[in-house]
Write a structure and sequence with these properties.
Blueprint (H helix, E strand, L loop, with lengths): L4 E2 L7 E7 L5 H14 L4 E5 L19 H10 L4 E3 L3 H4 L19 H4 L3 H16 L1 E7 L3 H13 L5 E5 L19 H19 L4 H13 L5 E9 L4 E2 L6 E11 L2 E11 L4
Parallel strand pairs: 1-4, 2-3, 2-5, 3-4, 5-6
Antiparallel strand pairs: 7-8, 7-9, 9-10
């Protein structure tokens, strides 16, 4: 474990970076393996940092799982060269930053509406970690679709010299999207959580147009007892606003819901007609 752990001052320019909050699972493993392929002979860095700026006052910072020893082992098995697991003082010397990156209007809806300030905290730490690790490529999962869209926009708008690569969502055989939060689900909760992927797959199967896809997904959500839906929407990933009824090109069908005490998100990418 100690052979992989490094401090910021020790980091060489990286070929690729995978940023995580730890509690690594097969979804993270797929990111690291893809990073290994993209980096070639370059360095693959995995960051493990539970970012306090991303958690609201009523969220689960204290109970977020910390499994560093297992995370280092998995990262090594998947081809990582370095695990960068800084403490809070190393990332935020002198306390929480007074200057932060704002997600702006693109971060106000959907997850941003449910978690005010979350995306400002996420972008701030991503920017800092990009500076510290200096990768040519940074990889993020498609499961966190709004996060991915915001990072892409930040990199474009602020001229970060890095390529952003998206990796498809990894699912259990029954369709449940992998998430570190799944460990908080009871067996009954987990069964109910399958309603999220069922709804998305129903929308995909009816995806002749956007409204039809949303109706099919909404019917599946409505038929699921015990699911407290937050939102279900067809979204334009370029600016993360609701897609118009006649939308063509890429889209994201996204859902968020609370199952028991655990809030989960999921989405699938769709394509409508010929992109304009």
């Amino acid at each position: 474990m100690t052979d992989l752990l490094h401090h910021a001052k020790d980091l060489a320019p990286a070929g690729a970076v995978v940023m995580t909050m730890g509690a690594l699972h097969e979804g993270h493993a797929s990111l690291i393996r893809e990073a290994r392929l993209l980096a070639g002979t370059g360095t693959v860095t995995v960051t493990v940092f539970v970012n306090p700026l991303q958690f609201g006052p009523n969220e689960d910072l204290a109970r977020y799982p910390r499994t560093l020893a297992a995370d280092v082992e998995l990262a090594a098995e998947c081809g990582a060269d370095v695990v960068f697991a800084p403490d809070v003082d190393e990332v935020y010397p002198g306390g929480q930053p007074r200057v932060r990156i704002s997600a702006g209007p693109m971060g106000e809806g959907y997850e941003g509406a449910s978690r005010p300030g979350h995306f400002d905290g996420m972008l701030t730490v991503v920017a800092k970690l990009l500076h510290l690790t200096r990768p040519a490529t940074a990889l993020y999962g498609q499961k966190d679709a709004q996060q991915l869209a915001l990072i892409r926009r930040m990199v474009t708008d602020l001229n970060f010299p890095v390529r952003i690569a998206a990796v498809p969502t990894v699912r259990e055989p029954d369709g449940l999207a992998l998430s570190s939060r799944n460990r908080f689900l009871t067996p009954a909760d987990r069964e109910q959580a399958l309603a999220l992927s069922r709804a998305l797959f129903a929308g995909r199967d009816k995806a002749a147009d956007g409204p039809r896809a949303v109706r099919a997904a909404a019917e599946a959500v409505a038929a699921s007892a015990g699911l407290k839906a937050d939102y279900l929407a067809l979204i334009d990933p370029s600016d993360f606003t609701e897609a118009s009824p006649d939308h063509t090109g890429p889209a994201v069908l996204a859902v968020a819901a609370k199952i028991g005490s655990t809030r989960l998100i999921d989405n699938i990418p769709l394509e409508f007609g010929a992109a304009q």
